[in-house]
Amino acid sequence: MTNPGPVTDVSIGGDSIRLGQFLKFAGVLDSGGDVKEAIIDGYVTVNGEVDRRRGRQLQVGDVVAFDGRRVRVVA
Q1: Which range, of 3-17, 22-36, 59-73, averages the lowest pLDDT?
Q2: pTM
Q3: Which helix (H) or strand (E) holds 25?
Q4: Is the dihedral of CA 65, 66, 70, 73 positive or negative?
Q5: Is 35 exposed, middle or buried (0-12, 13-18, 19+ CB in 10 A)?
Q6: How far apart are CA 6 and CA 69, in angstroms?
Q7: What angle do CA 13, 42, 51 make, to 5 degrees?
Q8: Bridge partners, residue 8, by sequence
Q9: Three-class SS of residue 45?
């Protein structure tokens, strides 16, 4: 197994945020259209599992990955 690389912590200033919002907020993707496409096509994982719901509520500690980048939700 290869090392997936470092995890970047991104503070959301609260307890939860929707997956689609977080991808834009964290700077992983630039536009809502890109976010929608990446999630629907199954390129985004949450805690190591593909999740195709833009509205999924992320909690503090969740790790989101896309295109080799991993970002963790922190308060």
Answers
A1: 3-17
A2: 0.92
A3: helix 19-25
A4: negative
A5: buried
A6: 8
A7: 45
A8: 71
A9: strand
Amino acid at 18: R
List Cβ neighbours of 65 (8 Å cut-off, separation of 6 or more).
4, 44, 45, 48, 71
Residue linked to tokens 């991993």: 70
Stated as kind and residue range, the H or E segment containing 27 is: none
**Amino acid at the residue 47:** N
Q: What digits encode the pLDDT tens for the residues 19-37?
A: 999 999 999 999 999 999 9
Query: Among residues of the chain, what percentage have pLDDT more than 70?
Result: 95
